[in-house]
From TrEMBL:
<keyword id="KW-0863">Zinc-finger</keyword>
<feature type="region of interest" description="Disordered">
    <location>
        <begin position="15"/>
        <end position="55"/>
    </location>
</feature>
<feature type="region of interest" description="Disordered">
    <location>
        <begin position="166"/>
        <end position="185"/>
    </location>
</feature>
<dbReference type="Pfam" id="PF01753">
    <property type="entry name" value="zf-MYND"/>
</dbReference>
<dbReference type="Pfam" id="PF04194">
    <property type="entry name" value="PDCD2_C"/>
</dbReference>
<keyword id="KW-0479">Metal-binding</keyword>
<dbReference type="InterPro" id="IPR007320">
    <property type="entry name" value="PDCD2_C"/>
</dbReference>
<dbReference type="InterPro" id="IPR002893">
    <property type="entry name" value="Znf_MYND"/>
</dbReference>
<feature type="domain" description="MYND-type">
    <location>
        <begin position="191"/>
        <end position="229"/>
    </location>
</feature>
<keyword id="KW-0862">Zinc</keyword>
<protein>
    <recommendedName>
        <fullName>MYND-type domain-containing protein</fullName>
    </recommendedName>
</protein>
<feature type="compositionally biased region" description="Acidic residues">
    <location>
        <begin position="21"/>
        <end position="53"/>
    </location>
</feature>
């Protein structure tokens, strides 16, 4: 039963996300989802909620294998390193940093969300990054209210990347997902520490290790590259001293022979080291969040399931764990509005408590706010900085994700009530490959009021 359910959800993911590559029939099916939903059983909820747009929920599963989340399979995923859609023209400069502490941002999640109506959005992925420091997130809370011409200093950032069907990086045919798929072109070298950002700085000794920042170079040096680097340099030197046209005397010939052996050995060592460096030093940092595959399901399916039996067998988080978050969040509330808002939020989330993401890209879609306070007004959502057009809600990230990331429930630990992503309604083109969109973070009220 469990397997069937999982198989189903996998089918759905492929159905929802990648069919646009296949044929028009399925696209149409996709388009009809809203109508099916509206006719059904959302009558009961209507007193509390305005009209509901159909929402797609994101759930997490351990990746099937090491290949299943690579970029040419167009994954939706959390943690680990980003599967950059455009693997060459990555965000650079200040975009990659927390504006508050200046540290490189950490990869939170990515959502593959193509828009079938336009060729330019045939492939489309949104990437969310944040600073793991709660102090920065609390500062960010005040910054996000700033309106142009003031520019807010953010510790959470989201980027939109899109590609037409015909592009230099991927086949125009859908991936077979049988292990034979390959990207068409290579990507740029990534930072050996975080595996996230472009590694455009090179270790000056070995010239093999790449870094996004001096900070990450220092971290890598301290945690093992110091030794690794010496070995790499040593093997390079043996290459240099290798006499190419041997000596004449026996001893010199002997020396020559020895150096050839040493050179051969070190060449082998060199390769292994380089390989090691590339293979696992790419994620040398132990602080990156654990990697999961995101599986999608329609929220409407949970309406019918839940009415029959509450037994949900594929729970990854224990019920008690979820209840604890709920309680700790609830205890933070002050006003009645927040309590009321929380009650309806909890009721809706309760249908599928393990959801970590709610997706609904539509001009009329609204996020499901856990609290009434700390919500942006329309004017707080800035216009698209590339086309000047309006932005609309696209998805929200729930704090349940922190359970999967093993973030502790301490005072200083990272926490949020909801992270809401707004993107250009037109999903416009721009000269830059990764377009920064807008993100709003709602915290539970007492946390924000801490001076
Ligand atoms: Zn920071
Ligand atoms: Zn880095
Ligand atoms: Zn080095
Ligand atoms: Zn735009």
């Amino acid at each position: 039963m469990e397997n069937i359910a999982k198989g189903d959800s996998l089918q759905k993911l492929k159905g929802l996300k990648i069919t646009s590559l296949d044929d028009d029939d399925e696209e149409q099916e996709q388009d009809t989802i809203p109508d099916e939903y509206d006719d059904d059983d959302d009558d009961d909820d209507e007193e509390e909620e305005e009209e509901q747009e159909p929402v797609t929920l994101g759930f997490l599963e351990k990746p099937k294998n090491s290949r299943s989340l690579l970029r040419h399979l167009f994954p939706s995923k959390t943690g680990g390193t980003p599967a950059w859609l455009d693997p060459v023209n990555l965000p650079s400069g200040r975009s990659c940093l927390c504006d508050i502490c200046g540290e490189p941002l950490q990869f939170l999640l990515q959502v593959y969300a193509p828009i079938s109506e336009k060729d330019s959005t045939f492939h489309r992925t949104l990437f969310v990054f944040m600073c793991p420091s709660m102090r920065c997130l609390l500062r960010d809370q005040h910054e996000q209210w700033k309106r142009p011409p003031e520019s807010p200093s953010r510790s959470v950032k989201v980027f939109r990347c899109q590609l037409p069907r015909s592009n230099p990086f991927y086949s125009s045919e859908p991936p077979k997902s049988d292990g034979t798929d390959k990207p068409s072109g290579p990507g740029v070298a990534l930072c050996n520490w975080c595996g996230t950002w472009k590694g455009d700085k090179v270790c000056s000794s070995c010239r093999r290790a790449h870094y996004c920042s001096q900070k990450h170079q220092v971290m890598h040096w301290r945690t093992g590259h110091k030794i690794e680097c010496q070995q790499l340099c040593l093997s390079d030197q043996s290459f240099d001293t290798n006499p190419s046209n041997g000596g004449t005397s026996a001893t010199e010939r002997q020396k020559g022979y020895l150096s050839v052996v040493v050179a051969k050995m070190s060449s082998y060592m060199n390769q292994t080291l380089t390989y090691k460096l590339l293979a696992y030093a790419l994620v040398a940092s132990k602080s990156i969040w654990p990697e999961y595959e995101m599986i999608n399901e329609d929220e409407s399916e949970y309406d019918t399931e839940m009415s029959e039996d509450n037994g949900d067998t594929n729970t990854l988080i224990s019920k008690t764990g979820t209840d604890d978050t709920m309680k700790s969040l609830l205890s933070n509330f002050e006003g009645d509005d927040d309590r009321k808002s929380w009650a309806s939020f909890q009721e809706r989330i309760g249908k599928a408590p393990e959801q970590i993401l709610r997706y609904c890209r539509s001009t009329s879609a609204k996020p499901l706010w856990p609290m009434s306070s700390g919500r942006p007004s329309k004017a707080d959502i800035p216009k698209c900085s590339y086309c000047g057009g309006p932005r609309c809600f696209e998805f929200q990230i729930l704090p349940q994700l922190l359970y999967y990331f093993d973030v502790k429930n301490d005072v200083d630990s990272l926490d949020w009530a909801s992270i809401v992503v707004y993107t250009c309604e037109d999903s416009c083109e721009a000269s830059v490959s990764y377009k920064e969109e807008f993100v709003w973070v709602q915290q539970s009220s007492t946390i924000v009021n801490v001076p």
